[in-house]
Hints:
Layout: H1 4-26, H2 31-57, H3 66-91, H4 95-102, H5 105-117, H6 123-140, H7 148-155, H8 158-180
Helix pairs in contact: 1-2, 1-3, 2-3, 3-4, 3-8, 4-6, 4-8, 5-8
Amino acid sequence: MPGWIPVTIAAALFQVWRTALQARLRGVLTPGGAGFLRYLYALPVDFLLLGVALVGFGDGVPMLGAGFVAYCLFGGIAQIFGTNLLIMAFAHRNFVVGTAYAKTEAAQLVIVSVVVFGTHIPLVAIIGIGFAVAGVLALSFAGESMTPRDLLRASIQPAALCGLGSGFSFAVTAILLRNATQPWPCRRPRLSC
């Protein structure tokens, strides 16, 4: 079995666990406080992974250009906004809807990439993203009969709006961090499928 399969499964499990813990923290702390704890507890793991990378690759810390730092800074800010919006969705007592709408991140990433950067997306990728979004919405409204009007009404509820904002912030984060890894000045982003 390729190594990426167990890593992906473990990452998904840890992400669900982390999100559930954040939902519980939201009952005790503000969204900013719960988000801060997420990053505070992640800091030692970040340093550990940096140490492993430095030892494993043995190249030392590379030169960091202004473009890299700017993309990482704004990507980090977008990540914080996304996290806080996701935690705010929990405050509306709708964990499933907020989380489900946050999972529209991939679709929003593609829309931003196409509109802002003129990225060409293959038709098969667009169809796949459409199925993924439909699946997310079906899971979030499982057991309910939804007309398009009901779906629109549900999409403007506070938990859904926070979830959509969270997904958008996470999409912006992904774009900015992807651009940070490109040679400066960054090339037009490409999505490969």
